Amino acid sequence: MAEEELDAEVAAEAVEDSEYDNSENGTIIRDTDIVFDCPHCGHNLAIDYRGAGLQINCVQCGESVLVPIPDGMKIDDLDIEPGEILKQLFKTRRDLQKQELRAEGLEEQVRGLVERNSMLYAQCEALAMQVAELRNFCQQHASVGEKMVALLDRMSASLANDAASAEAGDENAEAAAEA
Ligand SMILES: [Zn+2]
Question: Is the pTM of this model over 0.90?
Fold first, then answer.
């Protein structure tokens, strides 16, 4: 049997599953169905007895769920046709591929977060360096400012001194002129 045909059949079964997955909505549950709750989301699930012990995806949350084997049922007793086994095999393989894809996606997310974290760390370090540089710059300029103030103080003191002697010189000149 071609894989596309099997895919189509499995898809049809999935639709069928969802038709009787909820007993409260008056959907059909056969006497031979295995009825159980999804261990992940608690959704009530019903599956054909031939699905006992198989891995299925919950129609509600999509998580992988192991169909319980009813008491007294022996898996060997199950009358599974080779086509059915192949169908389940394809489904299991697809589930596996989906899980692998999901794991890859998660790994990529983790890698992204680690990358982002180290980027933030580097940014933090660079910022700390800039702050230290700025602090040194300010400190240097503060000392330059202090030196400038001292220099200007000396300059204005000297200018005041010069002005005083100039005034005294003028007075002496005037006195000499009057004499
Ligand atoms: Zn579920």
Answer: no
